[in-house]
Write a structure and sequence with these properties.
Elements (H helix, E strand, L loop, with lengths): L24 H18 L19 E6 L5 H12 L3 E5 L13 H8 L5 E6 L4 H8 L4 E6 L5 H15 L6 E6 L5 H12 L3 E6 L7 H9 L3 E4 L13 E4 L16 H7 L4 E4 L19 H4 L8 E3 L20 H6 L1 H12 L22 E4 L25 E7 L4 E5 L5 E2 L3 E4 L4 E3 L15 E4 L2 H6 L3 E2 L7 H8 L1
Parallel strand pairs: 1-2, 1-3, 3-4, 5-6, 5-9, 9-10, 16-18
Antiparallel strand pairs: 6-8, 7-8, 11-12, 12-13, 13-14, 15-16, 15-17
Helix pairs in contact: 1-11, 2-11, 3-4, 5-6
This protein binds N-carbamoyl-L-aspartate.
């Protein structure tokens, strides 16, 4: 029997942080104001970036860390943050000693632990796991890294670090190096950078470019414009440069007076180089060619003022010889994890007088996208093999759930869990049993009706007994396919 709609659960008012796009720009600034206040009040007298004392802000609250993947910084800085706030922590950091080893689903675990704690921080190897957890938990869920999807609190630490160093997080020029495909830190980071008007210079290891859905969102939803494709002599690794207008999300800004983006881009010095390690646990290849950031790389004049950042851990891609270079700020970046997470915890728990993330109505995507929602047994499934929907233990708790996105030409389906895009499918009507190649049929009437289904291919639709829509004018179906 197909799973019934089992999306009950979380109270509508509960705020979660699964994607950096769950926070508006002003909410991000609000987190930073609170973090700064904690640093000012409780900062170590010698080391200005370190929290040295505590305060009884959350004496009655409990934070649970549920980690199904290794972690040092994220888990310990969350726990340190909660302890500095006077709260308590409970932790499950070893999947081998938790009920996961007995086959318990994440959906069940978070419903149970939600009764023991007021806030859950989840880390999981599957993309989209944090969204699933948020659907089932009765208390706020914070994504501490889910597969290669996102790591929003790392981005908050990264931006806060940039703000300390450069005074502002607006209009920065940031180079991102390494495994841009597998690094969840990068995905949250580039969305946020674009939203604050940055220029982003990708320096991927070969074959590790930004995933197509992240690239598409930067261009189509975050107003980034790609310029300087292979413009710089001898810089073959630069195949795209994302330039975002000062005020992102207003495409009209690009239609103003002609700006010589290419000149601007080449002449401007880099403000930060963000280095990431090869995410070996997410690749089958083990022996890969990988960029190394060292003193020789940083000699280039355009990096003369660049802060060197890394979410850590590093495993050889960032030379330890530059630790003493004034540009190296990765240990401060890790230290800021405590004040930033103190701010986030106290805001999510509603403990900051006059300020609360709970009071904001929605995140960055305030125009909520229509949702396509069908049982797991029906129609198209997420195409990302690492998505949580493909985890056998979760099969009764997930649905074929997608945001319907109006892309440049035809609508596409974005997995509601891992946010991978699906841009090739046929639409079908479950009552009349027809299918059509017109993808826009899904979103024509706003929220897709429960009768409307999507199949990955025409063959899948036929196998389920659907036939090509009768009133499709000859040739229309084929044309629609060509446009897809
Ligand atoms: C990162 C992660 O887990 O994604 N680490 C962290 O949280 N600071 C980066 C990494 O593991 O490479």
């Amino acid at each position: 029997m197909p799973a019934r709609n089992m999306t009950p659960r979380t109270k509508a008012s509960t705020r979660h942080l699964v994607s950096i796009n769950d926070l508006t720009n002003s909410e991000i600034e609000c987190v930073f104001d609170v973090a700064q206040a904690y640093l000012n009040e409780l900062g170590d007298r010698q080391l200005k970036y370190r929290i040295g004392r505590g305060k009884r802000v959350a004496p009655d609250s409990i934070l649970a860390t549920l980690f199904f993947e290794p972690s040092t910084r994220t888990r310990l800085s969350f726990e340190s943050a909660m302890l500095r706030l006077g709260g308590s922590i409970i932790t499950s950091a070893d999947p081998a000693t938790s009920s996961a080893a007995k086959g318990e689903s994440l959906a069940d675990s978070v419903r149970v632990v939600g009764n023991y704690a007021d806030l859950l921080v989840i880390r999981h190897p599957r993309d989209g796991a944090a969204r699933l957890a948020a659907e089932y938990a009765s208390v706020p869920v914070i994504n501490g890294g889910d597969g290669s999807h996102e790591h929003p609190t790392q981005t908050l630490c990264d931006l806060f670090t940039l703000k300390q160093k450069h005074k502002s997080i607006k209009n920065l020029k940031v180079a991102i190096s390494g495994d841009l495909k597998g690094s969840r830190t990068i995905h949250s980071f580039v969305y946020a950078l674009a939203r604050f008007g940055a220029t982003i210079e990708p320096l991927p290891a070969p074959g590790m470019e930004l995933p197509p859905h992240v690239d598409r969102r930067l261009r189509e939803e975050f107003s980034s414009k790609i310029v300087a494709r292979a413009l710089e002599q001898g810089a073959a690794s630069i195949d795209a440069l994302y330039v975002t207008a000062d005020e992102p999300h207003q495409q009209s800004l690009f239609s103003g007076p002609e700006i010589d983006y290419e000149r601007v881009v080449i002449e401007k010095k880099i403000d930060a180089v963000y280095v990431t390690r090869f995410q070996k646990e997410r690749w089958s290849e083990k022996d890969v060619s990988y960029p190394k950031i060292d003193a020789a790389f940083l000699k280039n004049a355009k990096y003369s003022q660049a802060s060197v950042m890394h979410p850590l851990p590093r495993v050889g891609e960032l030379d330890a010889a530059i630790d003493s270079d004034i540009r190296a700020i990765y240990f401060q970046q890790a230290a800021y994890g405590v004040p930033v997470r103190m701010a986030l915890i106290s805001l999510l728990l509603g403990l900051e007088r006059g300020k609360s993330l709970r009071r904001f109505e929605s995140g960055f995507q305030n125009n909520r996208l229509p949702i396509y929602d069908q049982p797991r047994s029906m129609g198209v499934q997420c195409v990302n093999p690492n998505c949580i929907v493909h985890e056998p233990s979760e099969s009764q708790y997930v649905r074929n759930k997608f945001h319907v996105v109006r892309a440049a030409h035809q609508c596409l389906l974005r997995c509601a869990y891992c946010e991978t895009d699906l841009d090739s499918f046929v639409t079908a009507n479950n009552r009349s049993k027809w299918y059509s190649h017109g993808r826009n049929l899904l979103s024509d009437a706003g929220e897709p009706s429960k009768e409307m289904l999507a199949f990955a291919t025409e063959e899948d639709a036929c196998k389920e007994g659907f036939h090509l829509r009768k009133n499709t004018r000859p040739g229309t179906a084929r044309k629609a396919t060509a446009a897809s």
